[in-house]
Amino acid sequence: MRYTREDLKALQAATLDEKIDHSLSMIEIFYLREHGNCYISFSGGKDSTVLKYLIEHEYPARGGRLLQDIPSVFSDTGLEYPEIRKFAMRQKNVISVRPKMNFLEVLRHYGYPLISKAVSDAIVEAKRTPGGSRWKRMHGECRRNDGGRSQFDYSKWLPLMDLPIKISDECCGAMKKRPMQTYQRATGRYPITGTTAAESVLRTTWWIGKGCNTFSDSPRGKAKSNPLSAWLEQDILHYIKRENIEICSVYGDLVYTDADGNEYEENPFSPDAPLHCTGCERTGCMFCPFGAHLEKGETRFQRLRRTHPRQYEFMMGGGEWAQEDGKRLWMPNKCGLGYAKVFEMVNGIYGNGFYRYE
Q: Angle between the 201-210 and 117-128 helix axes, to the nearest 10 degrees?
């Protein structure tokens, strides 16, 4: 069944309790359809922590007994904040899997992730297939039916293709997806994830095409459940606050804010007053630049410098010039990932404040 953007907006506009009911329904349908062969894709972040709580606490509290045997699988990439890894590994029923390559090897082999998954992927494919769909996106030859500028017009990023670095979106596949896929093949279990459609254009497009659940007996046979698809960031935060769910310390405290940015531990406003984390807003990989150029205030890398100086120095330091296929390219080395040089090159195109990392 194919959905519309209006369908998604209607779900996103529902109340938190309605979203909880919808999510539990999607989980139960997926569990039953896949005969219980499921696992929780657990990153240790707040979204997957909410998912784990829904399955292990909310569902049984409502009389459900089917889902208590679902393991949580944590991809131990070495890229997580140390606090995230410790938090994830002390939760109940957690299994860890590891990638075959470390991040330095992934960057040398595939390239640096920059801007977004979609843009990095377009750069790879544009170089691989001149004249193809991604090449057209990079060259601004992608238009809407009415002739307007397409959301997939990536011509702004065309100068990145001439930089002496390899660019790729493959890091997530190599570090996270493949270890999970190996676990899936070995166990016959299928993932339930905490991803939301609002996180990116790609995830919105995925939901419109497939909804929350796809099943193993579908034409492609790629079973997956994304039961939190309709949740927004504020839904996640309000549910954590309401249920007093423990989340990783790297997020700091959950506080209410007013229009002037003042913070309050207790809610002096309406029940849906906005919440935010005093620490990291999102965790993921410490070294991921996807979306970092859009951040206001203190960026994730400026915060990393302040809170985790050793990891920051490894990310920004090191690097070397190397020859590959007759080209002189900037690459990481054993002294560090060399991101300072990469950001310097990108900022040389888009301005000194594009990637703020110092």
A: 90
* CA–CA separation, 125 and 165 (whole Å): 15
Report the DSSP pairing between strands 275-277 and 254-257: antiparallel
Structure tokens at 264: 């309050």
Q: What is the pLDDT of residues 290-331, one digit of tens each?
A: 999 999 989 999 999 999 999 999 999 999 999 999 999 999
Region 107-136 average pLDDT: 94
Q: What pTM value is reported for the model?
A: 0.86
Distances 263 to 243, 257, 274, 293 between C-alpha atoms, Å: 20, 5, 10, 25
Q: How many angstroms separate the CA atoms of 320 and 338, rounded?
A: 7
Nearest partner of 55 among 23, 22, 89, 17, judged by Cα: 23
Task: Encode 48-69: b = buried (16+ Cβ within 10 Å), e = exposed.
Answer: bbbbbbbbbebbeeeeeeebee
Indicate the pairing of strand 38-41 with strand 72-75: parallel
Q: How far is the C-alpha of 90 from the C-alpha of 80, rounded, in Å?
A: 15
